[in-house]
Amino acid sequence: DTGVSQDPRHKITKRGQNVTFRCDPISEHNRLYWYRQTLGQGPEFLTYFQNEAQLEKSRLLSDRFSAERPKGSFSTLEIQRTEQGDSAMYLCASSRRRGGNTEAFFGQGTRLTVV
Amino acid sequence: DAKTTQPPSMDCAEGRAANLPCNHSTISGNEYVYWYRQIHSQGPQYIIHGLKNNETNEMASLIITEDRKSSTLILPHATLRDTAVYYCIVRVGSDSWGKLQFGAGTQVVVTP
Predict the structure, then answer these.
(1) What 3-state DSSP class applies to B81?
(2) Is the per-residue pLDDT at A68 higher than 90?
(3) CB of A25 within 8 Å of any CB in chain B?
(4) How confident is the model at residue A98 (pLDDT cuts 50, 70, 90)?
(5) Which residues, at least 6 apart from B108, have a Cβ–Cβ distance to it below 8 Å?
(6) What is the mean pLDDT of chain A?
(7) Is residue A90 less than 8 Å (CB to CB) from chain B?
(8) B102 vs A: CB within 8 A
(9) Which own/partner contact pairs does A14-18 have at CB distance under 8 Å and 24+ positions apart?
(10) pLDDT tens for residues B91-104?
């Protein structure tokens, strides 16, 4: 168990550029979640996958955001035409159902700065 | 999911017990209480969860009141490494797809 891995850890981009983040969940975890966290706030749920199926998207996830998990393993989160308001920490988590509850394991996040 | 209320910050002396309160007066019968913490520049870390009974693991103890409207997370012997933001979350315990609704949490500072 190597934990949830996110890449890159930091990204600085110019406004209007596209960025893509990658998340590698804990192996055999069938659920994968994306969250966004701004300074001083708790993480906010964006979307999640059960295997390769994207089952829920928050209204926070605008049309400029897209997430994929093509083979039910790693996932990517792409932001098109970045805006300064997109600057945040993007967190990925994975889980496997155990009993009646799920315990989510988080990665260390990708910090995005849009200049 | 029910909303929670936590104090914004609290200090604790190293080696002493830290008692972190959480109010969740609108909790439903099928909602569990979860605690996560987030150390600076890291992702949140699961601590413990419970439904009705008090729970204990290697990290902490969770005390839930009989009416389930509030709970307390206890770190029995706080260390400097316990300095973090602690989040109390309530959510449906059955298959809720693992979506967590974080609030602002409590910033705990453990001092020498």
Answers:
(1) helix
(2) yes
(3) no
(4) low
(5) B9, B10, B11, B12, B18, B20, B78, B82, B83, B84, B85, B86
(6) 92
(7) no
(8) yes
(9) A14/A82, A14/A114, A14/A115, A15/A82, A15/A83, A15/A84, A15/A114, A15/A115, A16/A81, A16/A82, A17/A81, A17/A82, A18/A78, A18/A79, A18/A80, A18/A81, A18/A82
(10) 875 454 567 889 99
Contacts of B85 in chain A (CB under 8 A): 42
Backbone φ and ψ of B81, nearest 5°: -75, -10
Spatial distance between the Cα atoms of B18 and B5, rounded to a whole number of angstroms? 17
pLDDT value for B30: 85
The 8-class DSSP code of residue A84 comes to: G
Residue-level pLDDT at B96: 47
Question: How close, in Å, is residue A114 to chain B by CA atoms?
Answer: 18
Of B41, B99, B25, nearest in space to A101 by CA? B99
Residue A20 confidence (pLDDT) above 50 = yes
Instruction: Give me the amino acid identity at B40.
Output: H
Q: Which residues fall within 8 angstroms of residue B58, CB to CB, at 6 or more apart?
A: none
| B48-59 per-position pLDDT tens digit | 999 998 999 999
Q: How many CB pairs under 8 A join A and B?
A: 62
Of the candidates B112, B104, B105, B56, the one whose C-alpha atom is nearest the C-alpha of residue B81 is B112
